[in-house]
Amino acid sequence: MGENIFTGIAAGLRTYLAGAGVPPLASEFIVMVVKLLAVIIFVSLNVVWLVYMERKVAAYIQCRIGPNRVGPKGLLQTVADVVKLLAKEIIIPRRVDKIVYLAAPVLVFVPPMMAFAVIPWGEGMAPIDLNIGVFYVLAVASLSTIIFWMGGWSSNNKYSLVGGMRVVAQMVSYELPLVLSLLGVIMLTGTLSITEIVNAQRGTWFIFAQPLAFLIYFIAGVSEVNRTPFDLVEGESEIIAGPYTEYSGMGYAMYMLAEYGSMMVISCMCTIMFLGGWLAPFGWTFLPSWFWFFIKVYAMIFIFMWIRWTYPRIRVDQLMGFGWKVLVPLSLANIFVTGVGMYIYRAIGW
């Protein structure tokens, strides 16, 4: 399946619109909107499923049943929660920066959606195949920092403000080792194209060539999506709900959904950079590429959830110290070792 399926669908849609007499400019706009809607629907459905999955994983770890009332095996529990949140009143506290306060929960879901515009779901299944796909994903993912800060600052609440400050400190501190951990893979492949990086792993997945980089990326990724043990942003015993404290109804729900969307982006990039993307293990190519991609992604997400219900929250000083004193030096050392290894291999003619 070498040809991009989205390119084929877009070409068919353009042909149909041209036959219907639609002008080229309007045709391109319609194609873009259709692609955008496809990404939004796909990500939203996955996020709804992840909420249910986390409840079931938590229940299994805690030796209980979990959601089991709404729908078969509780499958419609998340849908019922969404309906409940939609029915709740949106309360706007006094003396808030109203425009920023209302814009933050709407914008917070934008970076994950933008990232998924270039993430392939299988071979030839990228909505947009950029030759700088890795750089693009890292760039748009960093936008989340300012959006969380907008919500914390605009709420006119000391707990929200402290939570917003923690977001900025935590994300900036751990985004650096996360980016540095990917440089080893980029050095080995010599490209920022997601498709080319996956194809470069047909012989060996990069988790075996870059095990330290994989570990650094995973730890930094846990912090980037505010998951335990790095969930100091919303430490209930300290700052209630952090930057989300003054939000209710769907405003609060959008922040939670954005967390799951970001977790999915981190897991997708981990699969692409270290786990061979959509490539089948053991040569089992009789199953479609998208099946293997999602098996790997959901395996990573399960580990995220497992860690959340296993480890306690760490202190702020431990969080910052671990990021700057451990992860950053290790990621720089990994880049150095990778460079030396590449030089030696080329010197001996490998």
Automatic annotation (TrEMBL):
<dbReference type="GO" id="GO:0003954">
    <property type="term" value="F:NADH dehydrogenase activity"/>
</dbReference>
<keyword id="KW-0472">Membrane</keyword>
<keyword id="KW-1133">Transmembrane helix</keyword>
<dbReference type="GO" id="GO:0016655">
    <property type="term" value="F:oxidoreductase activity, acting on NAD(P)H, quinone or similar compound as acceptor"/>
</dbReference>
<feature type="transmembrane region" description="Helical">
    <location>
        <begin position="260"/>
        <end position="284"/>
    </location>
</feature>
<feature type="transmembrane region" description="Helical">
    <location>
        <begin position="290"/>
        <end position="310"/>
    </location>
</feature>
<keyword id="KW-0830">Ubiquinone</keyword>
<keyword id="KW-1278">Translocase</keyword>
<comment type="similarity">
    <text>Belongs to the complex I subunit 1 family.</text>
</comment>
<feature type="transmembrane region" description="Helical">
    <location>
        <begin position="204"/>
        <end position="222"/>
    </location>
</feature>
<keyword id="KW-0812">Transmembrane</keyword>
<protein>
    <recommendedName>
        <fullName>NADH-quinone oxidoreductase subunit H</fullName>
        <ecNumber>7.1.1.-</ecNumber>
    </recommendedName>
</protein>
<dbReference type="InterPro" id="IPR001694">
    <property type="entry name" value="NADH_UbQ_OxRdtase_su1/FPO"/>
</dbReference>
<feature type="transmembrane region" description="Helical">
    <location>
        <begin position="29"/>
        <end position="52"/>
    </location>
</feature>
<feature type="transmembrane region" description="Helical">
    <location>
        <begin position="174"/>
        <end position="198"/>
    </location>
</feature>
<dbReference type="GO" id="GO:0005886">
    <property type="term" value="C:plasma membrane"/>
</dbReference>
<feature type="transmembrane region" description="Helical">
    <location>
        <begin position="99"/>
        <end position="121"/>
    </location>
</feature>
<feature type="transmembrane region" description="Helical">
    <location>
        <begin position="322"/>
        <end position="345"/>
    </location>
</feature>
<keyword id="KW-0874">Quinone</keyword>
<dbReference type="GO" id="GO:0048038">
    <property type="term" value="F:quinone binding"/>
</dbReference>
<keyword id="KW-0520">NAD</keyword>
<dbReference type="Pfam" id="PF00146">
    <property type="entry name" value="NADHdh"/>
</dbReference>
<comment type="function">
    <text>NDH-1 shuttles electrons from NADH, via FMN and iron-sulfur (Fe-S) centers, to quinones in the respiratory chain. The immediate electron acceptor for the enzyme in this species is believed to be ubiquinone. Couples the redox reaction to proton translocation (for every two electrons transferred, four hydrogen ions are translocated across the cytoplasmic membrane), and thus conserves the redox energy in a proton gradient. This subunit may bind ubiquinone.</text>
</comment>
<feature type="transmembrane region" description="Helical">
    <location>
        <begin position="133"/>
        <end position="153"/>
    </location>
</feature>
<comment type="subunit">
    <text>NDH-1 is composed of 14 different subunits. Subunits NuoA, H, J, K, L, M, N constitute the membrane sector of the complex.</text>
</comment>
<dbReference type="InterPro" id="IPR018086">
    <property type="entry name" value="NADH_UbQ_OxRdtase_su1_CS"/>
</dbReference>
<keyword id="KW-1003">Cell membrane</keyword>
<dbReference type="GO" id="GO:0009060">
    <property type="term" value="P:aerobic respiration"/>
</dbReference>
